[in-house]
Structure formats: C-alpha cells, structure tokens
Fold:
Amino acid sequence: MPNQRLTSFIIIAVFILSLAAARAQDAGALLDLLVRKKIINDQEAEEVRAELVKESANTAAGKWKLSTPITELELYGDARVRYEYRGGRTADDAVPRSDWLERERERYRVRFGLRGTLADDWFFGIRLETSSNPRSTNVTFADDTSTITAGTSGNTRTINGPFAKNSDGIAIGQAYLGYKGFPDLTLTAGRMPQPLITTLMTWDADINPEGLAEQWKHTFNFNFGSSGVAESAAGYSKEGGKEVVATQTVSEPFKLKVDVFANLAQFVYDDSNPENPLGPRAEGVPNTDAFLLAWQVGARVTFPHDFYVQFAPTLYNYTGNGDTFNGHFVGGDETLSNGDSLSTNQTGIDSLLVLDVPMEIGWKIGELPMRIFGDFAVNLDADDRAEAAGFPDKDDQRYAYQIGLGIGQLKEKGQWQLNAFWQHTEQYSLDPNLVDSDIFDSRVNMEGVGVTAGYMLSGAVFLNLTYAYGWRSDDSLGTGGQGDIGINPLDQYQLFQADLNVKF
Amino acid sequence: MKHKYLALILAPVLATSAYADRLVIKGSDTLGAKLVPQLAEHFKAEHPGTTFDIAAEGSTTGIAAIIDGTADIGMASRRAKTAEVGAATSKGRTMKPVIVAYDGIAVIVNSANPVKSLTKKQVEQIFTGDVTDWSAVGGSGGKISIYTRNTSSGTYSEFKELAMKKRDYAGGSQKMAGNEQIAAEVGKNPNGIGYVGMAYTKASGVKVVSIDGNVPSVKSVQDHSYPYWRPTFYYTNGEPSGLAKQFVDYTLGSAGQKIVAQVGFVPVR
Structure:
C-alpha cells in the first residue's frame, strides 16, 4: 500500500506540476482533497504547493515584482473619446450684438493610476493624466503643430504636420500618501482625489487638490423594535374538516444606520515665491502662500428599504495671499468692450468665505435607484467682494444653488442613468477657479439647466450624453471666470457632449 | 612563536564555530512568543554552547528574513505569498516550508459576555463591521470592541482569509502586536472580541466561543472540523542544513512534539 500510495502521489504531483503555472491556486483545492483522502499528507501537500507557487512566480504574470512593503496594489484607469459642441452668445447691447462664438472639438483623455496599501496601515496612490489643465484632462485632436530646433546655429524651424504631439503630454494628476491606522480616521497628504463631498456647482470633478486632508467617519447602527430575528410561529385550525396551518411572523425591527463624518482640508492654493526675497520687499508683493481651508461635517442616514438622506455643510475659508490670485476679482464689465471685459480680473480669491451645503435624498422604486440632489452656497463676505470689484450695490449677488433629479445607475451592462438639474450662481457667490468647466463654461453669474444621460454598453464601457443651456443671471454684471468661450459677459451658453468611456 | 601562529590559524576556525552555534529565528508571534522559546531552551540543554536569537514580530518579518538572508529559520503562521516566493527566487533563494505544528485560531470574548457560540456568518459580520452591537448576535447589548493583530501578522492574514472571505477589517478595530496583547485587552473589556492561537486561550478573563458548534481542540484541528484550523511553518532557504536542520528535526521529533502539545498547539503526528 505505501508503494501504491507513493506512486499515486508521484503521478499526481507530476500532473499538477506540468500544468500551466497559473493553475497554482486551482491546485489548492485538489491538494486539500488528496490530503482528506489520505493519498498524501499535509507536508507533502505543502511541498507541492510551494513548488507550484515558485513555478507561478517564474511565469510572465509571476514576474510582476512588488516590493515587500506593498500588501495590495490596484491598477486602474479610464479612457474616453468625446465630441463636444460649445457655444456662447454676446449680449443684445454688446458689439457685435447677439453674436454666437461656437467651438466644435473631438477630444480624448486617458487616466492611468496605481493605488495600494503598505504594511502598517499606510496607503498611497499615483495617477497620470492627459492635459495639464487643472479642470480638464481632455486633449483636442489636431490642435497642435510640431516645432523643432535644428542646426548648430540654434535657428529654429517650424514643421507643421498633422498628428503632432505638442499638446498630447502626460501630467501627474494624483500623487499622495496616507495613513488609516487610527480608528475611523484617514489622513492624506499630497495631490489627492477630492476628499470632500461636493457638487459640480462648487468644484469641477477633474480637480485634484493639493495639501492635507483629514477624514473621520463613524457608523452608528440602531435597531428599534424586536430582537431582529423574524420567527414563524405555526398555529393550527380546522376548516371544513382539514387542518390549516396558519403562520404568524414577528415584525422585523426598524433599522437605522447613521454615518457621521467630518472632513477637514488644508489645501495649498497658491505658493508665493519667495516668501522672503533678498533685500527689502517690493511694495505690494505678497509674502505668504494662499491656502484654502475646508471644514465639513455631515451625516448620511440610511433608513430601511434603501431610503437615505445625506447632507454635508462645509465652510470654505481662504487665507494668505499667494502671488497669482491675490488681485481683486472683477469678473467682467458689460459696459466695456468684450476684450476689455475679458481682461478684467477673473480669478481673484479676495473676500471669499463660502458656506456650502450639498444634499442628497435617495430611494428605490423597485430596483430602480432615484435621487434628488442639490446644493446651496452663500458667500458670507460677498459685500466686500462686490465692493472690491467696483459694484458695491451688487453685494446681494452672494448665493448659488442647484437642484436636480437622478434616475438609474451605471454599474452593470444594460443599465442607464438620467440626471437633470437647474443651477443658479451669482457673481460673488463662489470661487470661479473651482466651478465646473463644462456646465456654464467655468463661469459664475449664470443660471440654466443641465441634462446627462448614460448607458452601460458593457460592464466597463458606457456612453454618456450631456446637454446644458444657460444664460446670464444678472444682466448688469459680467460672467466671471476663465472659460473656453472668449465672451464676457456670456449672455447665453450651450454645451453638448457625447462621450464613449472605457473604465478598467 | 609557534603558539602565536597556532592562535592565528585557530582564531577564524574558532570564530566560525562560535557563529555556527548561533541560530537566528525570526517571524510569527504565534510560534515565537511561547513555543519556539521553549523548544530552544530544551534544545540548548541537549546541545550546550548553542545560542538562539529569536525575534517574533510577525510572520511577514520571518518570511522577509529568509528572503534577505538575515535569519536561519523563518517562523510563519501563514503560507508565503507568490510575491514573496518570487522575491526569494530573484535573490537565488528557495522558500522551503516545514509544518511544525497545527493550530486553531480561537475567537475569544470576555468571560462575562453571555455569548457562547457564533456562526461563521456572525464572525464575518462582527470583524468586518457589518454588525456593531452585541445584541445582534444574542448578547446583552453594547458596542462591540474588536481587537486584531497588525498587518505584518500571519494570523491577521489567515483570519481574514478563513473567517472574513478576504474582506477588510472594520474601521474601528484596534490592532495589537501579539496574541497575549489581544487576550489581555479582551480580558479587560466586557465588550471585547478578538482572535488568538489555541495556545493563548488560557489567559485570564477570556473564554473561547464555539464556531458553528465547534471549538478548537486537538481533535477538531486534526480532523479539520474546526473551520479556522491552520498549519504553522518553519521556512528555510532550501533544505535546512547544519544547526537549522538539527533544530527542525528536534521540533518534529517526539521531544519537540511533546512540547508542542504542552504549549497548546496540535502536534503534526
């Protein structure tokens, strides 16, 4: 018997080892079975398992080497091709009057990232993205030409040709390190994914802020009512001479889940270089960096049957000066020519103390997710901002709000999603450097509607259509912000985008 | 003059001999906190002049020590991962596992906790944070305090695989350096729950809960009826040799396996 057993083991071991090395994991169950059948013992199984793992490590897949501290690594990303129409119209009293400036572009973007965990609760991430624009990862087809420097004399010559690569560069979109070893707390430093709960009204989704973030979240579970165990108690009765079994069901307890969170952020908004120059400081030259501090607290309450409510009040506080955004915001002037209006300060971050409250209510009808989403913001220092802009009588232009309805979700093949919203932003309500760059062309003092429709063509591919139509909110002011449409004030605006996305 | 030359010749030989009598063992706290030190003491009694350098900071450190050649034996309460085997291969080393004992990862609660048994599903729910109150699993109410090992521990990885379907631990779980620390904390906290190797279940203030009706015992680990059973290993670079082989053979011999049983593990025979 021992010889027969040894022979069986040798045959099976040779068979297993002859399989593709990728089968190392599949063989685990087979080895366990052989041990249970007492054909081999545990030590023999471990030796075969170790040999299989060693074989696997020598395959192309197994040669993917990870440094020892890495405990988990994820490769992810997405690619997109887009058709876009974007158009803006001048005001009725502008020169030229009621004229449209229109732009059509075919674009693409690629984002490619690695994120992982290290030993002892550290984590990291890095993501490369096309485009160096802080609010966009898009690259326009055929928008560039080639330039080379030729010869020893240093003369340059321009070679114009299609399919050049000047604008097709790669930038570091995210590079961050974090720690989550403290209960309920995540600490992040670097250039990071957005750590705050926001909407497109206040933050463009492509922005990766830089600085520090602290995220705290704790979950409370409540059960109101019985012990939570549904029981059936059988009772018997006789009807028409036959026994009838009647069941009684004890009601399920009312379960409530409350996620309480607090997110704090200290973003470096603008670096002032140098903070201490040689010699005396020139008049008006700033000596401090500009920071954007965010203080967000909120809760998500989940009721039975997939009904939830979430709100996240946030205070955005700007401090310091920096040397790029420290001028006073004007945002355009409709009494000026288009060129002069565009040349007024569109990016100043003076007198911004914004209280923002994004909200969401969700539920399901059958299996169909529905949600009402919204945002409300007010700049508590809008009067100073308006006065510095030269429009002290417009200090009431401090509010922004958004309300919308969403149906469906994009998670699996065949699923669809519709979102429609109304948005209104006043001239001195928000930071124009952060608002979404597509809806209303990165501008404030705009209002209008936006609609998106998406469909999952497969598990990783989806089609998305976006349409937005907006107009100037206050006709006596410009439309502050730096957009793609060179008109200020932007009296009317239209956007259409058709995207084909692949996620991996 | 002759003696001077003799000393010069013998010095490296003596130094080599002194080095050869020293065994460096690194790795698992499960093995290294109690079992291996006791094995070492008994081995030293039979092999005078032998010294041991034992560091028990987690299975990951033991495997890494074999990879980078800083230990003769790596103790581990989990198998080496593909990436670790690959790293060893790239350095010309071979991870050779030897099963030295079996263990059952026991789920422990405070002695005052009325909960005596849990299902595998409940264990998963508790340690992943799906369930956060003792009342949901038949206890008398109170927020569950979870104590786990840290990420360099083999027990941390094995429990995640055996009991949690590889899901992440609950965000509020508290990480401890070793089995004794987990037992100490659970023993002090009426709402505490944690996991330890079988050899650490006798700590004061704690009791073992059954899992689907099974408690870890010699029989339930040997016949694999206890769901959280596992082999524990010595790893060496290839076949063990020299003093390392002697110690491995001692561990697997009748005297060593008797110590394995006395400490609270399950012998391999």
Remarks:
- The longest helix of chain A spans residues 2-18.
- The helical segments of chain A are 2-18, 26-36, 42-57, 338-343, 382-389.
